[in-house]
Specification:
This protein is α/β, with parallel strands linked by helices. 31% of the residues lie in helices and 28% in strands. The two termini are 14 Å apart.
Length: 152
């Protein structure tokens, strides 16, 4: 069992921070499942990960397009983890499956700090995570970087 990291986005967009986080995950040798709630957002992220840098791209695939098991990063809105990830990213209010967080080496919940509903949902997820006895770490943006604000 690893830790569940809560990333409170207040200065930058998800599109600005996510590629860097995914790149670092791959650098660590992690396999990633990224779960969202909107096919439109997943489509946009799919394009972003191919083009976010001129000199490189992030190898990834989308659920439902074949070869899911071989993808180092798999984007989905569905339940299940066909690429056998050890890292889970939840965006836009996506929720984990029962027991899924405990199976991960690391899970990241990214939420928009400018959206009161997203903040309230993240608070509920924090309570659920800590109530399940999992390690939770809260990160907040500060001057373009991340500051560790709380741990339980």
């Amino acid at each position: 069992m690893g830790e569940v990291r809560f990333y409170h986005l207040t200065e930058r967009s998800l599109e600005a921070v996510l590629p860097v986080m995914l790149e670092r995950s791959l650098d660590r040798g992690w396999r990633v499942l990224l779960r969202g709630t909107s096919e439109e957002r997943i489509t946009a992220l799919d394009q972003l990960l191919w083009t976010y840098r001129d000199e490189s791209f992030l190898p990834h695939g989308r659920a439902g397009q074949g070869a899911e098991a071989s993808q180092p990063i798999l984007l989905t809105t569905s339940a299940g983890a066909p690429n056998s990830p050890n890292t889970l990213f939840l965006i836009d209010g996506a929720v984990p499956e029962a027991g899924e967080l405990a199976r991960m080496e690391m899970a990241a919940i990214l939420f928009d700090g400018r959206d009161p509903a997203a903040v309230e949902q993240a608070r509920g997820q924090w309570r659920a995570v800590t109530g399940d006895g999992l390690k939770a770490v809260y990160w907040a943006e500060d001057a373009g970087g991340w500051v560790r604000k709380a741990e339980a």
